[in-house]
Amino acid sequence: MTRSTKKLVHLTTVHNPYDTRILRRQCKSLSEEGYEVILLNAKGVNENFDGVQINAFDDVTSRIKRMSFTMIKSFFVSKKLNADLYHIHDPELIFVGLVLRLLGKNVIFDIHENFIGKIEARPWLNKYLSKLFIAFYKFILKNLMNKFSAVIVAEESIGSTINIKSCPLVLVRNFPDLSFIKSIEVEEERKPNKVFYSGGLTPNRGIEQVIKAVICSKNDNVRLVIAGKANPSVLKRVESYLSHERISYLGEIPFEQIVYHMKTSSVGVVCNQNIFNYQNALPNKLFEYMSAGLPVVFSNFKLWTDLNDKYKFGLSCSSNDPVSICESIDSLLTDFDLNLELSGNGKNAAKQMSWESEFLSLSSLYKDILYNDV
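Below the sequence we write its predicted structure tokens.
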């Protein structure tokens, strides 16, 4: 079997099949290297995306069903594909991956974020269930991670929480790809008072505080455009604000439209709240804003402010305080020279932190596992 015919299966039951890290970066880059890449999802999506075959093995919205029947189904569908390597993206699929390993398959487990921290923040878990799940996952991290062919982490801080001794631990960060940076360099006319928020509308990402910040601004011309899937409880809380003349909520829109709004805005906001591991995470959106030349209003987490001290791409704020967010937004909208300077700095910084450099680590790991000659 040649390199070009090696079959790779990426498996997720939780993530959107168009997830930037999974599809647009990992799967697409691996396909371009000549692998046959299949992305299995539980969201009902079937299509070919730039050489990546997206296959739905289920279409499920129930959390209970997803973590039981869908998980079991994912194993049998994966096994039937008889891939040369499986790449697992969700913690609930750990045992699917481990059983595939017992069958002699190559399996990589990819940890996107600190999921113990996410368990602690889950409102649907009572404190006793939360403690039980945390103890369970801590046991897994300590005792079972070495059973995989390799473990990938998206952030350095995650690696320090895992007891890896006998399998590779590889850092693959969420940096923007150069093709995205190049495509977004095609200029559109920027609207001088347009602020853009892209991402999930969840309690932990600060959308309520951002909306209140824009509404309380003394700048009568400021406008906030919001794009992303809304958590029902959050949508209910902010529903009365969405009819305000300064707020436009677009819902979940195609990636190409998100790029358009980045290119026509003057400020991007990413105001994650100070819970679980957000303070140690570097979100996709931060780098995408920088790539688009958007000065960023961002949470004043130390990791983020240290990065800004180095590259000077935006202004920090207290992410749970609408007044603080408002002050940073207004500063960037009223000081044209500052806006222009930070815009250029962000673009230059994004080019230095590219996906292509991160993919070298992923590509090398795949070759080590599949060919043992690199």
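Residues 269 and 297 are 5 Å apart (CA to CA).
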